[in-house]
C-alpha cells in the first residue's frame, strides 16, 4: 500500500498526516517522546485529496468551527484496538468519558486497562478523540502526546463547546 503524507502546522506543533489512497491512516505530533520519522517509501503529497480534506478539517477544528470530523479513517490495529478507537468517536465534542465507561460501551466492562492501552496506541489522535477519555476519578492519565497536550485539548474544546462541558463520570 502506498502511503502519502504531509506536514500541517497546528497549535500543538507540527502534525504528520498520512493517508492511503482512500483514508487517513495516521496523525502524529512531530515533536516529543513518540515523534515518528517519515518511513522510506512514503510520498510527500500535499495535493492528495484525503490529506487535503484532513488539513481543512483540522484547520476548522483548531479555529473552533468544527466539532466532528468526516474524513475517512483506516487506522491499522488489532480487532480490539479497532473497537477501542471507534468508541471515542461517540463522545460529543467538549465532553468526556472514563476508561471504564468506554470499556462498558464496548461490551467489555472488565477491559478498562486494555482500553487505556489501546487508546495510547491511537494512530489518528485528535480525529479519533482519545483525549476525551479520563480516569474514573476525572484525572488525566497517559496521553500518548503527553498530559499537557491532553489538558490543552480538553480546555480548547471546553472553550469552544456550544454547551457547557459535561462528563458522565460520577
Descriptive labels:
170 residues, alpha/beta, Double Stranded RNA Binding Domain, Arc Repressor Mutant, subunit A, 4-stranded mixed β-sheet, globular, disordered C terminus
Structural class: alpha/beta
Query: How many domains, in number, for the residues?
Result: 2
Shape: globular
Question: Would you tell me the overall average pLDDT?
Answer: 88
Q: Which CATH class of the largest domain?
A: Mainly Alpha
Task: Give the name of the CATH superfamily of the largest domain.
Answer: Winged helix-like DNA-binding domain superfamily/Winged helix DNA-binding domain
The CA-CA distance between the termini, in Å, is 45 Å
User: How many H/I helical runs?
Assistant: 5
